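Morning - nicotinamide-adenine-dinucleotide inputs below, output right after.
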Amino acid sequence: MEIKKVGVVGCGLMGSGIAQLCAQAGYPVVVLEINEELLNKGLSAIDRSLSRSVDKGKLSPPDREATLARIAGTTNTKDFADCELVIEAAVENMDLKKKIFAELDKICPQEAILATNTSCLSIIEMARATARADRVLGLHFFSPAPVMALLEIVRTTATSDGTLATGKKFGQSLGKTVVIAQDSPGFIVNRLLIPFLLNAIRVLDSGLATKEDIDTAVKLGLNHPMGPLTLADLIGLDVIYSVASALYEEFGEPQYAPPPLVKKMVSDGRLGRKTGRGFYEYK
Ligand SMILES: NC(=O)c1ccc[n+]([C@@H]2O[C@H](COP(=O)([O-])OP(=O)(O)OC[C@H]3O[C@@H](n4cnc5c(N)ncnc54)[C@H](O)[C@@H]3O)[C@@H](O)[C@H]2O)c1
């Protein structure tokens, strides 16, 4: 099946990035939020991101306008009625995601593919909330979605070969390198990344070094593009907490147990860049 129009659920950090990425690749996109205020916030983030690309000389002003023209915002799920693919990027909560999938199943064309950007929740559980489990898969983008080269595609025990093939072709049409993972918490990248980030937070909490020195040590000593605490702020402490909790629940290994400092920061609203405060302060 050919994907002609893409729907995106949620216009937060990931949803706005995914909508921008798809529109830049030439797809008409409709992006859903729960109210006008959040929708406008998400659309403004896309606008700013595209303007930054123009300032850096990576995008021409006419291409910026054409990309924006391909993105329509909505607060009505019915606007997904003509999408061949809908990518869900709402908050990481299984009950909410199941509700969204059940609703999408009623509204989207019968042959449409429903995808989730979940970081660690069971995709087969979402698929079973629909009557089209064979056409459900994970499309796991990385932040910032327009920039990061990787797309993890997650296949459940019910995902058909045709759905997987369409997912791969779609990912490649966005310019991504695609890897395939089974439907297991954390997939490939988070299964490896989360223990690393949690260890960096444990090292900070132990008083071994300052946050700046931990980040510098990893950047220069391991040749990472950014330090783990900066990365944690970028991903969001709430996301890290929920992914770590899900991994711990599934595997029961102490390496996945979120340290108390993460829980405290989440309770205190120190979620990272998105709230202006995490390990670092942001304007
Ligand atoms: N943050 C990351 O680096 C990252 C990376 C990969 C995947 N993910 C996953 O992507 C998803 C979104 O994460 P995020 O960081 O963008 O979160 P976010 O909080 O920035 O954005 C989520 C958005 O979804 C909206 N939303 C909630 N319910 C909705 C509904 N019923 N309909 C439409 N919109 C709804 C919220 O209003 C919010 O704006 C999560 O499943 C997360 O695990 C996150």
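Note: Residues 9-15, 32-34, 38, 89-92, 96, 100, 117-119, 141-143, 235-236, 239, 274 surround nicotinamide-adenine-dinucleotide (CB under 6 Å).

O.
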